[in-house]
Amino acid sequence: MKLFNNAVSALVVAIIFLLIIPLPTFVLDLMFIINLALSFVILLTTLNIKEPLEFSIFPSLLLLTTLFRIALNVSSTRKILTNRGDAGAVIKTFGEFVVQGNVVVGFIIFIILVLVQFIVITKGSERVAEVSARFTLDAMPGKQMAIDADLNSGVIDEEQARKRRLDIQRSSDFFGSMDGATKFVKGDSILSIVTTFVNLIGGFLVGMINGEGAMGDIIQIYAISTVGDGLMSQIPSLIISVATGMIVTHSSSDFSLNDDVTKQFLSQPRVLMLAAGAMACLCLLPGFPVPQVLTVSVFLFSMGLLLSRRVLPKVAAEESPQLTPSTELTSEAEFYRNIDNVYGLLNIEQVEMQFGYSLLPLVDAGNGGGSFLDRVVMFRKQFAIEMGMVVPTVKLTDSGQLNPNQYAIRLKGEEVARGDILVDHFLALAPSESEDVIDGIETVDPAFGIPAKWISEDKKIKAEMSGYTLIDPISVIITHLSEIIRRYAYELLNRQEVNNMIANLRKTNEAMVNDTIPALVSVGDLQKVLCSLLRENVPVRDLETILETMADYAPTIKDVDMLTEYVRQALKRTISRRFAEADQIKVITLDANVENLIMGAVKRTETGSYLALDTKTIQKIIASTNKELSKIKDLVQTPIVLTSPIVRVYFKKLVDQFYPDTTVLSFNEVDANTQIQALGSIAIDA
């Protein structure tokens, strides 16, 4: 095995030596026969592969065989010119067989072979390879997007995606190499013509100088050798050229070219019978060879008749009994005849991103957009660490309904956000409105709604020196996606994901999970509590504490809102860390009179409780809240209202209708080590 590991390297070195070292005639004959056999092997291989990548070494093999033929040409030319035209039995036999005593006819046949290869086969293969390479490269972004979409939707796993990406890359490399490798065959054809004239003219001059005979005898000797040498070079070269054309024109299939040709030609028996009739009509032309024409016509008609008898029973067996012969069904209608396939249309993606075609290079892994996918993966990791929930896979698709520079974020099949991106620009956020000195395209940050500008690359340094915050296009999209996920995380937490979280907790605390679920806490109630926490941006990573708290209160408290409040109090360290800055929380407090009004308006039912305040009182509370929030908007990033535990849930529901981004905490949710700084108080006139 170690010997074969370096066989190719040894072969290349041997070919190089063939250009220098003279070969005995019997060795040269062996080399010519090997060259001819190798060309047949390559041709038959291209006929039996199912897709071009099965013969991916072909471009390199094309170079090696071309170099091998050139080396043989040099060796044979050396023999012809130094050995009175004797370059071995192979060249002599080919030359005498083709020339057959007429040098002119031999040269005409040789030139025709060269022109067929150079103009027809090589030129066509070169053009097909060039177009295939361009189309393969152009199709890469769409193929990469399809792989990413299948991966994100769970149709394929990471290993399959990696294999498909590798196949696309190999296909691109293959057709790119074929585009250049066809030039080898073209150059080989030109060299054959040059070598032929060198052999003929050089042989004639050598024969005249050495006095090897009369002019006619010298031409006859060297003409036979020249034609034989040219044919032994051109025939393998022609076979390799045909193989090149085969491999660049052969599309991917489940079958070899032999099988495809057989099936596709013989699947149309009517065509064979019509062709037989057309051939029979040629007998009416005077002088046409009737026996030969009738032989071919009868053969075609017999084949068509035989195949039609085989096809008809097959069609009858496949025909649906519910259909009349006149009914025509498209393949799509036939597919959806199976009701299970119709149900497949009802599936929707949890998270989906659609992109206009100008943004595809940003997200296409094969075109430098791998960083986008990596950023999505890292956001999923960070969100899991931060919030305790795994974000569903994000399906990436292109959309013709969007503008070229637009993207859309969809949750459960419905669009929830849209943004515009300028590729090769930066989103610039000015340090303040008074310091906005950079020219650019006015826009709004899609994630936070902040006024911004798109600036070009040449203004980047100036903007940075002026204190602007610059965000690249991928970061803009990722930031927008992350904000949408955070805002709607409670909608994405379904029961399947809750079961996954329970299964993960069972690995470390199986006894607690088995004692709690479903005996004390149902999966449905746990999902509702977790969704309530996520809705208010409270992490649910400490699932063990959440379950233990619910198990303590669930037997006596059936109101999910109240259960959530007890869970929040158990998570006070998490909540304090979440909303505090340097162990300090800046808040607006709720006046005692307002709390009393709210508690007095709470109505309790068997299924829960609700707030029944009159409209006038609600307007006063909201007006006061708005006034206090306006005072602190420049002091804090996230406004926080602090209430008593029993009021918190009702005030949160009230304020959410007007200020959904306001955080409402209770005193029991603030850790003892966290300082509270009151910046105002929400109060109303009695």
Describe this structure in words.
The chain is α/β, with parallel strands linked by helices and 686 residues long. 62% of the residues lie in helices and 10% in strands. The strands form four sheets. A four-stranded mixed β-sheet has the order 2-1-3-4. Helix 4 (58-82) packs parallel to helix 7. The longest helix has 53 residues, at 158-210.
Give me the secondary-structure topology.
Layout: H1 2-5, H2 7-18, H3 25-48, H4 58-82, H5 89-99, H6 103-153, H7 158-210, H8 215-249, H9 257-266, H10 269-281, H11 290-318, H12 331-335, H13 339-343, E1 351-355, H14 360-363, H15 370-387, E2 394-398, E3 406-411, E4 414-420, E5 425-429, E6 441-444, E7 451-456, H16 460-465, E8 469-471, H17 473-487, H18 489-492, H19 495-506, H20 510-516, H21 523-535, H22 543-553, H23 560-570, H24 572-579, E9 584-590, H25 592-600, E10 602-604, E11 609-611, H26 615-632, E12 640-643, H27 645-656, E13 663-666, E14 675-682
Parallel strand pairs: 1-2, 9-12, 9-14, 12-13
Antiparallel strand pairs: 1-3, 3-4, 5-7, 5-8, 6-7, 10-11
Helix pairs in contact: 2-4, 3-4, 3-8, 4-7, 4-8, 5-8, 6-7, 6-8, 7-8, 10-11, 15-17, 21-23, 22-23
